[in-house]
Design brief:
By secondary structure, this protein is of the alpha/beta class. The chain has a single domain, classed as TIM Barrel (Alpha-Beta Barrel), CATH 3.20.20.100. Helices cover 34% and strands 14% of the residues. It has 10 helices and 10 strands. Strands 3-10-9-8-7-4 form a 6-stranded parallel sheet. A two-stranded antiparallel ribbon has the order 1-2. Helix 2 crosses helix 3 and helix 5 crosses helix 6. The two termini are 34 Å apart. Bound molecules: NADP nicotinamide-adenine-dinucleotide phosphate.
Length: 275
């Protein structure tokens, strides 16, 4: 296993007053998600700042460094039970929700604001309304879902990309793990004396993206930090660039129940798959 002596680099965020973001994040969420707070409901200006206040008290924090819109999806009022009923989805109010996020930023509750699970077309709508620039877009991204189009768009617009499921996620659909089982990554890892996880995380870092990796194992946490004192060769990058692409997280299958109909919102507007 590689050493963890190299310091963690930081990334500057484009958001007034934001602190730099570490080049690797430690995720804590496990799946399926159990939540008690508001989810996907801040469709009005008052609501997002209001929904943030109880969370802030629970966290015992005066402010957070970064506050994200989780999905470009809104639901009818009421408690959220997963999987969500399709008929509960309503059109997402890009301008109204972003105004509320901007208010959180203006009040100093969030030093930077951003989004998650936004495609380029979602970002187009957001940027048309934004007065505070979104600092970050957190999306599924790893060597088997490389998000080339989105990365190019975000680089051009000055939006930093963060990668969730950088190691392929927690096998929630029971299909195994396309990243940790990758023969291409295994071959590179063997040649470099690294683990497959380290090769995947290093590749993400070399793309200018911040991986958010979850582990509850002390040894694997250390392993995942050991990516800053070595690099991948051009030939490694070429091989990784040729890995067949496969997305795991989809709004339709991860969030919504299989039965029922989308009566008030269009699934195409909420889906997050983009080649
Ligand atoms: N914005 C969103 O919609 C969204 C969606 C999904 C996830 N996330 C965030 O992103 C974080 C990470 O994503 P994720 O949990 O989906 O996937 P991930 O970090 O790719 O994978 C986590 C799985 O890999 C294992 N693992 C971690 N380090 C390893 C290593 N070095 N070698 C082998 N296995 C290792 C973990 O198990 P052990 O714990 O046993 O090590 C865990 O089961 C989450 O915790 C969450 O905070 C956000």
């Amino acid at each position: 296993m590689a050493s963890t002596t190299a310091a963690v680099p930081e990334v500057a965020l484009r958001s007034g007053g934001a602190r730099p973001m570490p080049a690797i994040g430690m995720g804590t969420a496990t799946f399926p998600v159990v939540r008690s707070g508001p989810w996907a409901r801040p469709s009005r200006r008052r609501c997002a700042a209001g929904s943030w206040r109880p969370g802030r008290r629970n966290l015992q924090m005066e402010y957070v460094d970064l506050y994200l819109i989780h999905w470009p999806i809104s639901l009818k009022p009421g408690p959220t039970v997963f999987p969500v009923k399709r008929e509960d989805a309503v059109p997402f109010d890009f301008e109204g929700v972003w105004r509320a996020m901007e208010e959180c930023h203006r009040l100093g509750l969030a030093k930077a604001i951003g989004v998650s699970n936004f495609t380029t077309s979602h970002l187009d709508k957001l940027l048309a309304a934004a007065t505070v620039h979104p600092a970050v877009n957190q999306v599924e991204l790893n060597p088997v879902w490389q998000q080339r189009k989105l990365r190019g768009y975000c680089a051009e617009k000055g939006i930093h990309v963060a990668a969730y499921s950088p190691l392929g996620g927690q096998n929630w659909n029971g299909d195994g793990n396309a990243v940790l089982d990758s023969e291409v990554l295994a071959e590179i890892a063997k040649a470099r004396g690294k683990t497959i996880a380290q090769v995947a995380l290093r590749w993400i870092y070399e793309q200018g993206v911040t991986p958010i990796v979850k582990s509850f194992s002390k040894e694997r946490l250390k392993e995942n930090l050991g990516i800053f004192d070595w690099w991948l060769a051009d030939d490694d990058l070429r091989k990784i660039g040729q890995i067949p692409q496969k997305k795991i997280v989809r709004a339709e299958t991860v969030l919504f129940s299989a039965e029922g109909e989308f009566t008030s919102a269009d699934l195409a507007d909420m889906e997050i798959v983009e080649e």
